[in-house]
Design a protein that fits this description.
Elements (H helix, E strand, L loop, with lengths): L1 H6 L2 E2 L6 E2 L2 H12 L4 E2 L6 E2 L2 H12 L4 E2 L6 E2 L2 H12 L4 E2 L6 E2 L2 H12 L4 E2 L6 E2 L2 H12 L4 E2 L6 E2 L2 H12 L4 E2 L6 E2 L2 H12 L4 E2 L6 E2 L2 H12 L4 E2 L6 E2 L2 H12 L4 E2 L6 E2 L2 H12 L4 E2 L6 E2 L2 H12 L4 E2 L6 E2 L2 H12 L4 E2 L6 E2 L2 H12 L4 E2 L6 E2 L2 H12 L4 E2 L6 E2 L2 H12 L4 E2 L6 E2 L2 H12 L1
Antiparallel strand pairs: 1-2, 3-4, 5-6, 7-8, 9-10, 11-12, 13-14, 15-16, 17-18, 19-20, 21-22, 23-24, 25-26, 27-28, 29-30, 31-32
Length: 454
């Protein structure tokens, strides 16, 4: 003990750690005081040790002084190189006593143990979110600070995560060094390959402890948990709207910036979301991947298929709050509401006539252009509306789908049935403004008005 005290005479009175040099004791005390006197001139991050600052600066400079003698991979930290070397040796000296999983580093084992204990010792002082790993907390804090220390020297894009930066760099190099042994699909990084392999195995190792839902990726489980907790850690710095995941926030911000990064090479249309862009491409390709299992109809969007299925089920989940009429789709409800509001947002650029629906103005424009796109295959008559062609076809087929429930007379058009029903009801909606006589049909009123002119 005496020789040990002589060798390390400087002791910490808080935790008992001993040091050979008094300067090292001073550096150690910063761990207890929380003092961080060394600041990064690039991003302002502070550190308790100068050596830690030097390591941090390599994030900005891109310096990687530690090289692997086997594969020539370079690293910013010596500790990272040591961990990397185990990928060549296969050495995993640290084993979990619970599930016997082995790890190449002690830190990896410590992080793994928290999977079993559920411990999350690293908490965010801003929003209270807790994490099992310190690095995850550091990554999370950048969401609040807006720090993006990883900068691409090719295009200048900045990233908050090292993994996002690495994936971005592959867009410049185009490298996909990892291949699936089953389907030969290439991937830019090992983590994406691992996730992809679960599509073949069906493995879902990450389970929700509340509802039991299983996921193939831990990130998917993390997002799912927010549906139970209501947590929305991603906030818009412009309007303050909060979101459960970062990708939704990224898409939301484009509402303010007007950015539309996804462009169609065929027609030049631009989109803010990749999903909208993929859906748009089907306009050109004609692809309809969503099929109805009842009637076989195919659709380009899953939302259109859902709306179509209501034709078979009869479901009408959208109701008008004024008259309680129900509809199968929200678009139909919006059009219906204009009956109550009187709104006519679609105007004809030729005559100024206004309409409640966009489809009506398309039909109306044919009165100016003379276009009649619907042709009869029997007699070559043409019509401006599909419904007019359908009525016309009954002349050839003899179909009479509209029946009177009083005398069973049948009619080819609904308007003829309405006129017929007035014989039974006695209704006379057309009145003479001169003498007050009432008539069941408008044509009879017009004949009557000629008597007054004489």
């Amino acid at each position: 003990m005496e020789s040990q005290i002589k060798r390390k005479p400087h002791s910490c009175q808080i935790c008992g750690s001993a040091f050979a040099v008094h300067g090292n004791l001073k550096k150690h005390l910063l761990v207890h005081t929380g003092e961080k006197p060394y600041s990064c001139k690039v991003c302002g991050s502070s550190f308790s040790r100068n050596s830690t600052l030097k390591e941090h600066v390599r994030i900005h400079t891109g310096e990687k002084p530690y090289s692997c003698t086997v594969c020539r991979s370079a690293f910013a930290l010596n500790s990272t190189l040591k961990n990397h070397m185990t990928t060549h040796t296969g050495e995993k000296p640290y084993s979990c006593e619970i599930c016997e999983t082995s790890f190449s580093s002690l830190s990896g084992l410590k992080d793994h143990i928290r999977v079993h204990t559920g411990e999350k010792p690293h908490s965010c002082l801003v929003c209270g979110s807790a994490f099992s790993r310190k690095q995850h907390l550091k990554n999370h804090m950048r969401m609040h600070t807006g720090e993006k220390p990883y900068m691409c020297k090719v295009c200048g894009s900045s990233f908050s995560l090292s993994s996002s930066f690495k994936n971005h760099m592959l867009t410049h190099t185009g490298a996909h060094p990892y291949y699936c042994m089953v389907c030969k699909s290439p991937f830019p990084d090992k983590s994406r390959l691992k996730s992809h392999m679960r599509t073949h195995s069906g493995e879902k190792p990450f389970s929700c402890q509340i509802c039991g839902t299983a996921f193939a990726e831990n990130s998917s489980l993390t997002k799912h948990m927010r549906s139970h907790t209501g947590e929305k850690p991603y906030s818009c710095s412009i309007c303050g709207s909060a979101f459960a995941d970062g990708s939704t926030l990224t898409t939301h911000v484009r509402i303010h910036t007007g950015e539309k990064p996804y462009s169609c090479k065929i027609c030049g249309s631009a989109f803010a979301e990749n999903s909208s862009f993929k859906t748009h491409l089907r306009v050109h390709t004609g692809e309809k991947p969503y099929s109805c299992q009842i009637c076989g109809s195919s659709f380009s969007q899953s939302s259109i298929l859902k709306g179509h299925m209501r034709k078979h089920t009869g479901e009408k989940p959208y109701s008008c709050e004024i008259c309680k009429t129900s509809f199968a789709q929200t678009s139909t409800l919006r059009s219906h509401m204009r009956v109550h509001t009187g709104e006519k947002p679609y105007a004809c650029t030729v005559c100024g006539s206004r309409f409640t629906q966009k489809s009506y103005i398309k039909i109306h424009m044919r009165t100016h252009t003379g276009e009649k796109p619907y042709s009869c295959t029997v007699c070559t008559s043409s019509f401006s509306m599909k419904s007019l062609l359908q009525k016309h076809m009954r002349i050839h087929t003899g179909e009479k789908p509209y029946s009177c429930n009083v005398c069973n007379n049948a009619f080819s058009v609904k308007d003829a049935l309405n006129k017929h029903m007035r014989r039974h009801t006695g209704e006379r909606p057309y009145s003479c403004k001169v003498c007050g006589s009432a008539f069941a049909q408008n044509s009879t009123l017009r004949t009557h008005m000629k008597r007054h002119k004489l």
